[in-house]
TrEMBL record:
InterPro entries: FAD-dep_OxRdtase (IPR006076), FAD/NAD-bd_sf (IPR036188), MTOX (IPR045170). Its cofactor is FAD. PANTHER family: PEROXISOMAL SARCOSINE OXIDASE. Residues 5-448 form the FAD dependent oxidoreductase domain. Coiled coil: none annotated. Keywords: FAD, Flavoprotein, Oxidoreductase. The keyword Oxidoreductase applies. Belongs to the MSOX/MTOX family. Residues 476-504 are annotated as: Disordered. This is FAD dependent oxidoreductase domain-containing protein.
Length: 504
């Protein structure tokens, strides 16, 4: 029986980054994924055209982490070619309280600029030799600034880019942009494979393997086709599939409702549009644009085969249905699959003990039929000529793994109250909350630090990445206390129709 030092379940951003770090530290690593090629499955969040990369978090811990991650994106010999530092443009629109005082869009903008300029993080922002430093973030106060940033765009700019400093506010951070999500994740895993990571395909994990003499000691896992894999340490990096996986793995040893794993999946909305080569050329190197009052965001076009595709999406509280599928069939659900997946007689949101939204009370049930139309209306505010339903190539669901405060979980399974001390050698890595991908170059280091494999030289606050941290939040919420988000982009989340937490 062969045994690895580490057995990783899941080849998304977390699993891939951790595998890359562990193999570089000299450990033997085996990685399993549901997919047919061993890389991130087609329905996984990391299997995407692009993801936003930015560092101006409201939370100091993530702000520092992200600035170091971006420096690695710039310089890493594997990842650099997949990173596009075109900048990120935040705009408020004219909705809600735009100017003046606590909770306003202006307050959020000024905080974003301030965090981008933190002196304590200057040493983390490193640029390739000869490239020179990029300009720092700055507040947008006039339409002329927007016209300059988007000067090459043909076809006209929409009304959503007008009235800056008068009807709306915003800022631009040149030190950010986007990454080719699927391409970068695959490339990093391919590189890890050349260094010794063993990858096994079509590996849907269904149960733990326990030591004969100690049922609390996990020695490996078994897949749906009967294969067994053994390791000294097991890392569950299953993203939005975490709840179902943990429930299945511990079904014979403990009784716990799926909603009590302190994370739950939410379905988010993505649409892909087709643009012409000339349109793509005019939009080349334009910034990522985020409407932080609604959570709508868009990228410059990306070449896919012989076509140019443009991703638009909402980043919001999400939807409970459809759920992440157990089987990997090589595709992902479209928006219309949401209502079809909603079970007849499903309980209402927040109904104690009956839905995944217990304790969260945020997600709606199913994706509304009008969602695509709403996305195109948002796009028309920026690039009117592109906002046609005839351009839509596909819609897809992107699943997040949410926690109450958007902090991730990187902790031993034995520390979860429901595990009753079992699984001290099993690590649970989850709770991305929609903002983990940008940390692909550094999540492995964070795990190695938490696991005691390397010193915490950066003085990261590691207490927030624990089950105990999340358990306390759930206790606080049940007592009516306010939960502070690790990075809430809202400026007035209490109003109907406005994004409660835009977690990018």
């Amino acid at each position: 029986m062969s045994t690895s030092d580490y057995l990783i379940i899941g080849a998304g951003v977390n699993g891939t980054s951790i595998a890359s770090t562990l193999i570089s530290l000299g450990h033997t690593v085996t990685l399993l994924d549901r997919s047919s090629d061993g890389h991130v499955a087609p329905d996984g969040a990391s299997h995407d055209l692009n993801k936003i990369v930015r560092a101006d978090y409201t939370d100091a811990n993530y702000c520092s982490l992200a600035k170091e991650a971006i420096s690695r994106w710039r310089a890493d010999p594997v990842l650099a070619k997949f990173y596009h530092e075109v900048g990120v443009l935040f705009r408020s629109s004219d909705k809600g309280q735009v100017f003046g005082g606590e909770g306003s869009a202006e307050e959020y903008v000024e905080a974003g600029v301030r965090h981008a300029h933190l002196d304590k993080d200057k040493h983390l922002e490193v640029f390739p030799a000869g490239a020179g430093e990029r300009e720092r973030a700055f507040k947008l106060t006039s339409d002329d600034q927007l016209a300059s940033l988007l000067s090459g765009v043909t076809g006209g700019l929409g009304d959503g880019l007008k009235g800056m400093g008068e009807r709306q506010t915003g800022y631009f951070n040149p030190r950010g942009g986007w990454a080719e999500a699927n391409n970068a994740c695959r490339a990093l895993l391919d590189h890890a494979i050349t260094r010794g990571v063993a990858v096994h395909v079509n590996a849907r994990v269904v149960s733990f393997v326990y030591a004969d003499s100690d049922v609390s000691k996990v020695t490996g896992v078994r897949t749906s086709d009967g294969r067994t894999f053994h390791a000294d340490h097991i890392v569950l990096a299953a993203g939005a599939w975490t709840n179902d996986l943990l429930t299945a793995l511990l079904s014979t040893s403990t009784d716990v409702a799926p909603s009590k794993w302190m994370t739950r999946p939410s379905a988010q909305c993505v649409a892909i549009l087709r643009v012409t080569p000339s349109e793509a050329a005019s939009l080349r190197n334009t910034p990522v644009i985020i409407n932080f009052s609604s959570g709508f965001y868009q990228f410059e076009p990306t070449r896919v085969g012989d076509e140019w595709h443009m991703k638009i999406a909402y980043h919001s509280n999400g939807y409970l249905w459809p759920r992440p599928p157990v089987e990997c069939n090589g595709s992902y659900p479209a928006f219309e699959d949401s209502i079809a997946a909603h079970p007849t007689g499903a309980r209402s949101i927040g109904d104690e003990g009956t839905t995944e939204d217990v304790g969260y009370d945020m997600a709606s049930s199913t994706i509304p039929a009008s969602r695509l139309s709403e996305m195109l209306t948002e796009l028309a505010q920026i690039y009117p000529s592109l906002a046609s339903p005839n351009r839509v190539v596909s819609t897809r669901v992107c699943w997040y793994s949410d926690t109450l405060d958007e902090n991730w979980i990187l902790d031993r399974l034995s520390r979860h109250p429901a595990a009753q001390g079992r699984g001290d050698n099993v690590w649970v890595i989850t709770g991305d909350s929609g903002h983990a991908y940008k940390f692909l170059p550094i999540i492995g280091d964070l795990f190695a630090t938490i696991a005691g494999l390397q010193d915490n030289e950066r003085d990261w606050d590691l207490t927030r990445f624990t089950f105990e941290h999340q358990a306390k939040l759930h206790r606080d919420k049940s007592e009516g206390k306010k939960i502070e988000s690790a990075d809430s982009n809202r400026f007035d989340g209490g109003k109907e129709g406005e994004n409660a937490r835009a977690r990018l």
